[in-house]
Design brief:
This protein has 325 residues and is of the alpha/beta class. Helix content is 45%, strand content 20%. The protein has a single domain, classed as D-Maltodextrin-Binding Protein, domain 2, CATH 3.40.190.170. It is built from 13 helices and nine strands.
Length: 325
C-alpha cells in the first residue's frame, strides 16, 4: 500500500512541471465583433490551441476591453498582456519609422498596399519592433480610409471648411488641413455623439467600420476620398514571446500567418458588404475625381518626411517595390 502511494505521489509531482508550463495569451483589439480583427483573432486562437495540445490558450478581448491601442502597446512591452492588434499610427511614438505609412496617397489600392506589406518591405518594418519590446508577427489588411458625414464631397472644393475628426498624427492632421478641412483630433469613442450633435461635420474611416460601429445611424454621405491606406498588424509582447520554446514560437508565427489570410479575406468581404449596406440605408456613396486631392496631398510629403527617421530612404524602398516613381 505504501509503495503504491509513493508511486502515485511521484507521478503527481512529475506532472507538475507540465501543468505549470501552461501559458495563456491575452489578445486584445479595439474593433467590433464582426470586424476582420475579430475574424483574425479567432483563427489565431484556433491554430495556437490546436497545435499546442493545451499548453497554450488564447483569450480574446475585443472592443478595447484591454484599453486603447496606445495602452495595449505599453502593456505588452511590460508583459502585462500577451498580444494585440493595432493600426500603424499608434506605433509611431515607439517606432517613428512607421510614420512613412501615414503619407497621404502612398498607395493606389488595398491590394497594392497589402502586397507590399506581405513581402520583404513588410518584413523589414516588422523587424523594427523588438527594439521597442515587441514582436511583430504579421501585417493584417490595411484600411482604406475615406470621409463620411453629413455633407457630400464631390470635389476638393467640398472639403473647404469641413470640421473632420481625424487620427492624431502629422500625416493625418496636416493632410486634412492642406485639403481645406479643419482637422479635429478626438477620441474615437466620442465621434458618434459629435456627429449626432453637429460638433463635427464628419470623420474618416473605412466603410465597414462605419457600419460596424453604427455611424450609419447618424450620417448621410460616404465619400470615397481614399486618402490613407492604414496598415494593421498583430504584435506580441517580447518578454512573453522570449519565454516560449522555439517550437511554441514557430507555432505562434504559423498561427499569425493563417490569421493574416483570414484578415485579408474578411476585410475585402466586409468592405464590399458595407457599401451595399450604406446604399440600402440611403447613405449616398460619392466618388470624387481624386487627381486634385492627390496633387495637393502629395505636395506635403517633403515636410512630413522631414521628421521621419529614414523617411526618404523608406519611401524610395516602398516606391521601388510597387513600381512607382
Amino acid at each position: 500500500m505504501k509503495l503504491v502511494n509513493i508511486v502515485t505521489l511521484g507521478s503527481l509531482f512529475a506532472a507538475l512541471p507540465t501543468m505549470s508550463s501552461a501559458l495563456e495569451i491575452t489578445l486584445g483589439h479595439t474593433l467590433a465583433l464582426d470586424s476582420h480583427y475579430q475574424v483574425a483573432s479567432e483563427k489565431f486562437k484556433e491554430v495556437v490551441e490546436a497545435g499546442s495540445n493545451g499548453e497554450i490558450t488564447v483569450s480574446i478581448f475585443p472592443q478595447s476591453q484591454l484599453g486603447g491601442e496606445v495602452r495595449m502597446i505599453q502593456s505588452a512591452r511590460t508583459g502585462a498582456i500577451g498580444a494585440f492588434i493595432t493600426a500603424g499610427p499608434p506605433l509611431e511614438n515607439s517606432i517613428p519609422q512607421y510614420a512613412v505609412f501615414s503619407l497621404p496617397y502612398l498607395f493606389s489600392s488595398v491590394d497594392e498596399a497589402n502586397g507590399l506589406l506581405q513581402g520583404e518591405v513588410g518584413d523589414r518594418f516588422l523587424a523594427l519592433l523588438p527594439d521597442a519590446g515587441l514582436v511583430g508577427l504579421n501585417f493584417f489588411s490595411v484600411f482604406e480610409r475615406s470621409v463620411f458625414g453629413n455633407k457630400p464631397i464631390n470635389s476638393l472644393a467640398d472639403m473647404r471648411g469641413l470640421k473632420l475628426r481625424v487620427l492624431q498624427g502629422p500625416g493625418f492632421v496636416q493632410t486634412y488641413d492642406a485639403l481645406g478641412a479643419q482637422a479635429t483630433p478626438m477620441a474615437y469613442s466620442e465621434v458618434f455623439v459629435a456627429l449626432q450633435n453637429g460638433v463635427v461635420d464628419g470623420a474618416e474611416a473605412s466603410p465597414e467600420q462605419v457600419v460596424q460601429d453604427k455611424f450609419i445611424e447618424v450620417i448621410k454621405d460616404f465619400s470615397l476620398t481614399k486618402i490613407h491606406y492604414m496598415p494593421s498588424l498583430l504584435v506580441m509582447s517580447k518578454p512573453i514571446f522570449d519565454r516560449m520554446t522555439p517550437e511554441q514560437q514557430e507555432l505562434v508565427r504559423d498561427a499569425a500567418r493563417q490569421a493574416k489570410d483570414a484578415s485579408l479575406e474578411a476585410y475585402n468581404r466586409t468592405y464590399e458588404e458595407a457599401l451595399v449596406t450604406l446604399r440600402e440605408a440611403n447613405v449616398a456613396i460619392n466618388e470624387p475625381d481624386l487627381a486634385e486631392f492627390q496633387t495637393v496631398a502629395k505636395g506635403l510629403w517633403p515636410n512630413l518626411l522631414a521628421s521621419v527617421p529614414q523617411g526618404e530612404e523608406n519611401l524610395k524602398l516602398i516606391q521601388d517595390a510597387i513600381g512607382q516613381e
